[in-house]
């Protein structure tokens, strides 16, 4: 897995490498899978209200993620720098990074929450929402905005925990959150027992309640004295240049990447929304299914990011390379299984979300296209995770700009409208985007330049 001239010290056995990787990856993969499943269950439950309800909830996704872009980028920096400090055996430094991150996350999330609530309607209209479901979409987004500060702080704490290799904390946090979400979805969407029938608003309230529960649990883990990251550890609650600079070095580039990604995803979704409610609802269902395959890639990516960062902190770039390549091999094996599931089980999966024949027929065809994107998708996510763990976020930002903000929206428009491929064109564009990102991220990883970045 590594060239002789890249070896720095003693190398572990192959079995040990895989065991270490899987030990860290499986909680993150399970967590991401559960998050994806809850998103799918959300869509299934809302789907019982009809395609307009599916569209109302789905149209809020990209605006919400744009508002959270600064939090996502901050957390990339938190994970990378915390992993370095763990590798350097600097517990105080790791705790200082987390506390600074919590302060930043609080300020950013409160600001974004207010903006999202006040400008919900114009944001959703710009996203392509139609008059038939705009009212429900505005209601959903505004309710979700109340939970953004809690969600953001939970994400920041868990980002630091992952950097230290504590992926199980995030997993259990999300399991509890998801259970609350599902239970109250069931009770509030259709009005079960003593609860009122709130339909789309009920789904939003359930999601917000789940976010609050996740925040409470993740915060509670910080009050354990024996934990590596703990509020009992003697660290500081302030903005100091020596703490901020490494975080901002990674997060600033990650923020640029997030902006490009969200603009690209926003444009992609807005173009598809203009294909009509049936096509857009089908797209949302297929994206929900595809997100379940993303979960395995996300889990591998989180493990790769933490292991790369920790070993670079310990001055073992050779082990960082080995763990990166291990992630790639596991990604290929997982993707092969997903390929066959999508290829031969696509129609059944779509039918779980809707009983409308037009959506099922179109969705079955889309899932065949999706099956051919799984290898590129999972592999590029792992490669990008390695680069982010090393702090090489400037490169991933440029890649996202070219691929997601330019190539994907342009190809989607070209294939959907001038070439008349409708929703098929959008999914072909998605596959080409994934392939491009895999090629450029693999070349960067192979160059080894990421291993020379200091934090």
Count of helical regions? 16
Q: Which regions contain 5 or more consecutive residues with pLDDT less than 50?
A: none
Order of helices and strands: HHHHHHHHHHHHHHHH
> What's the count of strands?
0
Multimerization status = single chain
Rg from alpha-carbon coordinates: 21 Å
Could you say which structural class the secondary elements and strand pairing correspond to? Answer: mainly alpha
Proportion of strand residues: under 5%
Average of the residue pLDDT scores: 88
Tertiary shape:
globular
Q: Sheet bearing the most strands, described?
A: none
Termini separation comes to: 26 Å
Tally of discrete structural domains: 1
Helix content: over 70%
Task: Describe this structure as you would to a colleague.
With 455 residues, the protein is an all-alpha fold. It has one domain (4-452). Helices cover 80% and strands 0% of the residues. It has 16 helices and no strands. It has helices spanning 14-47, 51-58, 61-67, 69-87, 91-118, 120-126, 134-163, 167-189, 200-220, 241-273, 277-313, 317-351, 357-371, 374-389, 393-416, 422-447. Helix 12 runs antiparallel to helix 14. It is globular and about 60 Å long. The model has no long low-confidence stretch (mean pLDDT 88).
Topology (elements, then pairings):
Elements: H1 14-47, H2 51-58, H3 61-67, H4 69-87, H5 91-118, H6 120-126, H7 134-163, H8 167-189, H9 200-220, H10 241-273, H11 277-313, H12 317-351, H13 357-371, H14 374-389, H15 393-416, H16 422-447
Helix pairs in contact: 1-8, 1-11, 2-7, 2-11, 3-10, 4-5, 4-7, 4-10, 4-11, 5-7, 6-7, 7-9, 8-9, 10-15, 11-12, 11-13, 11-14, 12-13, 12-14, 13-16, 14-16, 15-16
């Amino acid at each position: 897995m590594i060239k002789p001239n890249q070896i720095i010290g003693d190398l572990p056995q192959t079995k040990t490498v895989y065991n270490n990787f899987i030990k860290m990856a499986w909680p993150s993969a399970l967590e991401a899978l559960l998050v994806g499943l809850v998103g799918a269950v959300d869509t299934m439950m809302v789907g019982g209200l009809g395609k307009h309800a599916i569209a109302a909830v789905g149209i809020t996704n990209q605006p919400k993620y744009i508002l959270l872009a600064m939090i996502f980028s901050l957390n990339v920096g938190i994970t990378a720098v915390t992993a370095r400090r763990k590798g350097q055996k600097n517990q105080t430094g790791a705790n200082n990074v987390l506390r600074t991150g919590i302060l930043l996350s609080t300020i950013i999330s409160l600001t974004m929450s207010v903006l999202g609530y006040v400008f919900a309607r114009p944001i959703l209209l710009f996203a392509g929402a139609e008059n038939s479901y705009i009212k429900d979409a505005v209601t959903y987004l505004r309710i979700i905005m109340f939970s953004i500060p809690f969600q953001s702080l939970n994400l920041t704490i868990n980002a630091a925990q992952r950097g230290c290799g504590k992926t199980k904390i995030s997993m259990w946090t999300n399991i509890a959150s998801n259970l609350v979400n599902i239970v109250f979805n069931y009770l509030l969407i259709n009005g079960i027992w003593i609860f009122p029938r709130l339909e789309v608003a009920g789904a939003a309230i359930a999601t917000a309640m789940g976010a609050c529960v996740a925040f409470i649990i993740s915060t509670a883990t910080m009050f354990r004295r024996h934990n590596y990251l703990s509020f009992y550890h003697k660290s500081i609650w302030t903005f100091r240049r020596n703490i901020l600079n490494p975080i901002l070095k990674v997060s600033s580039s990650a923020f640029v990447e997030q902006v490009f990604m969200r603009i690209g995803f926003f444009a992609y979704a807005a173009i598809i929304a203009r294909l009509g409610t049936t096509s857009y609802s089908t797209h949302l269902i297929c994206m929900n299914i595809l997100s379940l395959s993303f979960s395995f890639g996300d889990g591998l990516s989180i493990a790769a990011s933490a292991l790369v960062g920790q070993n670079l902190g310990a001055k073992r770039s050779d082990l960082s390379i080995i763990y990166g390549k291990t992630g790639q091999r596991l990604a290929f094996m997982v993707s092969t299984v997903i390929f066959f599931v999508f290829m031969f089980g696509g129609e059944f999966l779509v039918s779980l979300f809707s009983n409308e024949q037009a959506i099922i027929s179109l969705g079955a065809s889309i899932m065949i296209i999706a099956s051919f994107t799984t290898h590129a998708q999972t592999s590029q996510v792992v490669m990008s995770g390695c680069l982010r763990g090393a702090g090489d976020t400037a490169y991933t930002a440029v890649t996202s700009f070219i691929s997601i903000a330019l190539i994907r929206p342009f190809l989607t428009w070209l294939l959907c409208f001038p070439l008349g491929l409708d929703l098929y064109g959008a999914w072909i564009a998605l596959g080409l985007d994934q392939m491009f990102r895999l090629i450029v991220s693999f070349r960067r990883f192979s160059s080894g330049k990421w291993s020379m970045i200091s934090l």
